[in-house]
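Recap for those who missed Tuesday's class. We walked through two folding examples back to back. For each one, the amino acid string is listed first and its predicted structure tokens come directly after. Nothing is annotated here on purpose, so try labeling regions yourself before you check the end of the notes.
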Amino acid sequence: MNLFSTLEEAIEAAREEFLASQSDITADDASVSQFALQKYVMQDGDTMWQAEFFADEDDQGECLPICSGEAAQAVFDGDFDEVELRQEWQSENTLHEWDEGEFQLEPPRDLEEGEAAAEEWEDDDSPSDNWA
């Protein structure tokens, strides 16, 4: 997972990664069908971004699909308004870091809740866990 401090950097990195995965085409010939994005808020309060482009609308990655078809191609081609993309982002989809490299949709309320969430998420599905 590559995170970037600016949306523009994240989109540029996603563009480069897409082109690297499609070695038989040039940037001018590239055709994308989906643009996906994810916003992260780190423990220190910094906002980070991750972006992905896909050739097929059915492809999935780590990010949430934001636009498809011509709109995705426009973002790939650099024909987008960063302010508009930020406005389209729904804050309830932002992932908040609660432990180093671990994210959840809600920001940690306090240390005790963070520890309780960690215990729940570390459920190893052992027989003792299933008896409760």
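Example two. Treat it independently of the first, because the proteins are unrelated.
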Amino acid sequence: MSNFTHKYDIQVGLDLTKILTPEAIPGIKAYLGVDNDNELLSAIAEDRYQKLVQALQEAGFEVIRAGFSRIEGRDRDEQKSTSTSSLDEATDRGSSSEQKSDQLSLEEFSSALVSLLKDEQRKISDNDGEIIKVDIDATYISIAPNFDVIRKEAGLDDEMEFNFEELNDGVILISYTDPKKQQLQFKKISKEELVNAKG
């Protein structure tokens, strides 16, 4: 670094939703040699980082410092990352913001979500209501499940919307209609409720 006189401040974007499609995940795991869903994000980050470093080195540049983080929802329009930790630190921690000791695997999460939504839809439909949107805490699960399968198994409308958001409270937020109250209603689901839903 002592040979450098100037530096570029560049943020390089990566859209994991295009990479981690449900049908692509098994192949990506095999390519990266990863068995655990919770290790997949770190493995992809490291793989893409090495390719980026190689490309920059071939162009005559050296990387001084690097970081990897999720783009915060409130800053998405500006595409601004808020993390300052190094890539090595994030990888060593196994991207701790995405991994928690009580976090479910992708398969467990999908199963629990189906069970939960089945139960909630039954309660809501008893009052002539309907689930119209489900928000999932983006810091709790980093890989999108197959929402088409979840809609089908939970008996939900094909047009029902799933979103990833940063939720301040709970890991799931269900938005549903209630004709009796004549306004949109919301129900927050905690981590404990989600874990219990998987049976």
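Answers for example two:
The mean pLDDT is 78.
The longest helix spans residues 37-58.
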